[in-house]
């Protein structure tokens, strides 16, 4: 991971374990709020839009310590080369994808979403786009521009 061992990391057994604990805490706090935005919305489409709104709200917040989501920042060779970290990141991403697929599938069956929409194809694209937002915000961030792009993206997907 490129982080040297020290007494701080040793208090958490190792740098890998310290990082894993940070990921767990982040998911239990920050990502929980994002997931709630998705799940409390009346439909999957509105939930996905609410999820994107929480990301933009985070990017707008001057108290946000980093413009990169910790999970998005974990998608690097340094992190994913560590089996325990890779397993955790993959599990969390799979959990999100499965929840989104289930919600979209239920809406599709209920006739809320177009019949041609395939949640198994659409959800990975949404997750990839979501990860890309964090990266692009490092280069240039203007909320209104991102909102317009997100709207075009989701509308194009039928959401």
UniProtKB/TrEMBL annotation:
Keywords: Transcription, Transcription regulation
InterPro entries with a match to the protein in the record: Tet_transcr_reg_TetR-rel_C_sf
PANTHER family: HTH-TYPE TRANSCRIPTIONAL REGULATOR YJDC (PTHR47506:SF1), TRANSCRIPTIONAL REGULATORY PROTEIN (PTHR47506)
Designated name of the protein: TetR/AcrR family transcriptional repressor of nem operon
Origin species: Granulicella aggregans
Taxon lineage: Bacteria, Pseudomonadati, Acidobacteriota, Terriglobia, Terriglobales
